[in-house]
Amino acid sequence: MYHKIIVALALDHGISQTALQVARALRTEGGEIIALHAYEPVQGSVRAYLGEEVIEGAYKRAQALLAERVAGEPDIRAVMLRGHSGRAITDYAEGIGADCIVVGSHKPGLSDFFLGSTAARVVRHAVCAVHVLR
């Protein structure tokens, strides 16, 4: 069905294996799966209280966790981005010409009751198909 699939992974939730299985089922022969995590940098006044070594250490831990999630998965490429998750995912998908994004939905707030906030933003702004996993 899809040739270039992005699987958006939230590293603090256990949906990774299910999302990767869904992506494999949706992938055409010879297609590509990209496991993507968008690392949201510390914002505002909180950043003033953290040293750059703490911030960079957290980023490197997230990179290691992403690599661990796709270890032993030779057909999946891991990509780590920095930025607001909804925006980073959709911008990256558009930039590489992805034709599908698989994203999990969890812990919705009141304004995004039926989808989690990241999933809702991806659905609203993606220029390709989006498969939302509950």
From TrEMBL:
InterPro entries: Rossmann-like_a/b/a_fold, Universal_stress_UspA, UspA. SUPFAM superfamilies: Adenine nucleotide alpha hydrolases-like. Residues 1-134 form the UspA domain. Pfam families: Usp (PF00582). Belongs to the universal stress protein A family. This is Nucleotide-binding universal stress protein, UspA family. It comes from Roseovarius azorensis. The lineage of its organism: Bacteria, Pseudomonadati, Pseudomonadota, Alphaproteobacteria, Rhodobacterales.
